[in-house]
Fold this sequence. Notes:
seven-stranded parallel β-sheet, alpha/beta, about 20% strand, single chain, Rossmann fold, UDP-galactose 4-epimerase, domain 1, 2 domains, 14 strands
Amino acid sequence: MMLGTVLVTGASGFIGRHVARSCRARGSETVVLRRSGSTSAVVHGGRIVEVALDDEVALRSAVRTIKPSVMIHLAAYGVSPQDRDPYVMQRVNVDLGAALVRAAADCGSVFVSAGSCAEYAEPRRRERLDETSPLESGKLYGSSKAAGGLLSLAIATALAVPMRHLRLFNVYGPGEAAHRLLPSLASERATGRRVRLSAGLQVRDFIHVEDVAEGMLVAAERLISGTAKGATPLNLCTGVGTSVRDLVTLAAQALAIAPENLGFGDLPMRPDEIPYLVGQPDKMTFDLGWRPAYGPAAGVEATIASL
């Protein structure tokens, strides 16, 4: 299905680059909305429009000029643990999304935003989180993403903007930052040294970035066609829990790292590490008529092949 003109924020990021590329592969015109003065490189980004993102009047004027049929909001602050300015956190994770939904109402766009599994409070039991699970209220990043998602959904409902707020679980794949788990393993392979690791007992719902990009565009298609209606949050997840230890073992096999060079337990677990964080995908599957294509083994193999 043709999406028409797709406006993307956060297109210079890990996920944004894949979303922009997937849009163009579908034959859509992709317009990247970027903060004025930004020097971030945009790959497969299409046309670039710069605007002061904290100036709602200018922002909405720019969107009206672009006239997108779809808006995909990926810009966020706080993914890196070093980014913890609470004022910036509110402006980017709460206020910007709300302003963009109002801009979508101005020009009749459908709206898809990228949330996070960090929006959920730590589960008390080892059970999958669904969209009604308790939300984070103490940690700055998670609570700001949760607040931003809820506010955007409420505004979308009030202004009749078709919207999906997709809570992304643990995204991995080609283009990850060098310090992330799989790229760092690949770097260590070249040294031949023992890789220092935690015990790796924490269980996560790992979802490949190409599946994330596809899921976001499927959500947009369903909103445009009217198959999906209203404004609601959805988990974007596999529903499969994989321990970090098992993921590392898969990667080590693909990288030909000897098992004795995997130093599980050499590093302590972080004191705030959540033991189990896995999403319930049933609502996603019903709403989108879609499931992720990659399992852990295939996803790790594809990622390692790209390094």
